[in-house]
């Protein structure tokens, strides 16, 4: 089955260029376009896309609020969008909203000034459940903005005490942008075991993917900027 994509950006030329590239792929189907966050939320509820390419800055409702509402509807049990993932479109130097977007449930982000081939790869990566695209860059961005926010340690919405010692190690490695294979190599375990630890860690923290796990690690002070 094709990956169903909704493109959300207030610039017509951006939407058209993204659509042309994605529609040319045999495994990707662009099901709609939106130029505001308000329209994005409405179309998500009607179309149920697999991946939403979400611009950060838009009129009426920005990408952060739109992401929060879409993920809120998914968490509330809307079956049509239960598997929808949001990929933020951003510029690294400017968009402080990205940290908040990851907290709101976005699965990662894509730099808007990158090559269009990266867009195609990102859609496939996100759709496949490998939610954190370009993890090293994402980690840098989260680290930058984590400096400006007080860490919550054990008093916030994530409970580190629920994790085993091994799961805590895994979370720390995930927050450093490591894949399951890399985690397995560091901990000297097989990759399937690493994958199991990651899944259990997600469940215990109540996070849906690696992007939110990275946020959790910074919020709890398990990983600090510059480490």
UniProtKB/TrEMBL annotation:
UniProt keywords, alphabetically: DNA-binding, Phosphoprotein, Transcription, Transcription regulation
Domain HTH luxR-type: 156-221
Residues covered by the Response regulatory domain: 4-127
Modified residues (4-aspartylphosphate): 55
MF term (GO), any: DNA binding
Top-level taxonomic group: Bacteria
InterPro entries: CheY-like_superfamily, NreC/VraR/RcsB-like_REC, Sig_transdc_resp-reg_C-effctor, Sig_transdc_resp-reg_receiver, Tscrpt_reg_LuxR_C, WalR-like
UniProt xrefs under SUPFAM superfamilies: C-terminal effector domain of the bipartite response regulators, CheY-like
Stored Pfam families: GerE (PF00196), Response_reg (PF00072)
Listed name of the protein: DNA-binding response regulator
Native species: Lentzea cavernae
């Amino acid at each position: 089955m094709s990956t169903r994509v909704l493109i959300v950006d207030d610039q017509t030329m951006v939407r058209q260029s993204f659509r042309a590239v994605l529609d040319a792929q045999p495994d990707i189907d662009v099901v709609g376009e939106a130029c505001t966050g308000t329209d994005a939320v409405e179309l998500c509820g009607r179309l149920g896309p697999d991946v939403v390419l979400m611009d950060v800055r838009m009129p009426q409702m920005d990408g952060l609020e739109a992401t929060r509402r879409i993920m809120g509807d998914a968490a509330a049990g809307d079956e049509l969008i239960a598997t929808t993932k949001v990929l933020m479109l951003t510029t690294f130097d400017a968009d402080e909203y990205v940290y908040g977007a990851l907290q709101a449930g976005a699965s990662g982000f894509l730099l808007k000034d990158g090559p269009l081939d990266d867009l195609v790869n990102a859609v496939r990566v996100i759709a496949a459940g490998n939610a954190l695209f370009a993890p090293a860059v994402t980690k840098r961005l989260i680290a930058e903005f984590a400096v400006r926010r007080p860490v919550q340690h054990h008093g916030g919405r994530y409970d580190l005490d629920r994790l085993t010692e091994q799961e805590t190690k895994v979370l720390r490695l995930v927050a450093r942008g490591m894949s399951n294979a890399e985690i397995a190599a560091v901990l000297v375990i097989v990759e399937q075991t690493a994958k199991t630890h990651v899944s259990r860690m997600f469940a215990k923290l109540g996070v849906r993917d690696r992007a939110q796990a990275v946020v959790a690690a910074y919020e709890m002070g398990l990983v600090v900027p510059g480490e």
